[in-house]
Amino acid sequence: MRNALISAGLIILALNVSWFVAYSVKLSVNGLFADRPEDISRVFKNDAQFANIGISFHMMAGALLTLGAPLQALPVVRNRWPKLHRKHGFVLFCLAIITGFGGLIYILLEGTIGGWWMSFWFATYGGLLVWCAVNTVRFAMSQDYDRHFAWATRLIVLAVGSWIFRMHYVVWFSITGGSGSNEAFTGLFDRVQVVAFFMPYLLVAEFFLRRRKLNQIDRD
Fold first, then answer.
1. Are 70 and 163 in contact (CB under 8 A)?
2. Membrane spanning segments where (predicted)?
3. Which residues contact 19 (CB under 8 A, 6 or more apart)?
4. Strands, E, within 40-189: which ranges?
5. Exposed, middle or buried: residue 199 (CB in 10 Å: 0-12, 13-18, 19+)?
6. The whole model's pTM is what?
7. Helix 82-110 vs helix 145-159: crossing angle, to nearest 10
């Protein structure tokens, strides 16, 4: 029953992020090949091809990672098809590395719309994404499956972070009409949001991971 509930939640999550995946992939391709990228989105620059490549790969890989991470965590995949789980996990690792470094390259070259505050927290998010991906694979290869599970859980939380970021805005605007937010992303809500889209969720994940570890110790 527990696995069934987890699987149902992960499948629902994967279905809910599908629109974001399609949107991000389309936007990244259009922005990369447009004659005037700034007409596609303000994250692109007409005279910054290298930065545009970085953000395009960040968006495309990040979208695929957002969809692939919940599917990778399905208990049936881990238990019945371990080889598929390993191969898919390596693909997700590559996507996480591309997502993280693509975003970091863009921030280094162009910064972010919201200034240094947004740049700092987005760079922190990208660095954590890469760190979690590396540790997830490292402990899987060393067959330390408890630590692998812990780092994979953190990675999944971060993998859906871009979707959570947008959903926070959808909910907030539907409730308040956009109070505390502006086009420059310097409003109070914007300032909180660049932290709130991933840090609280990591803390919740950490709570359950520590609780899981204590339960394992009690059983032993």
1. no
2. 48-69, 90-109, 115-137, 149-172, 192-209
3. none
4. none
5. middle
6. 0.90
7. 50
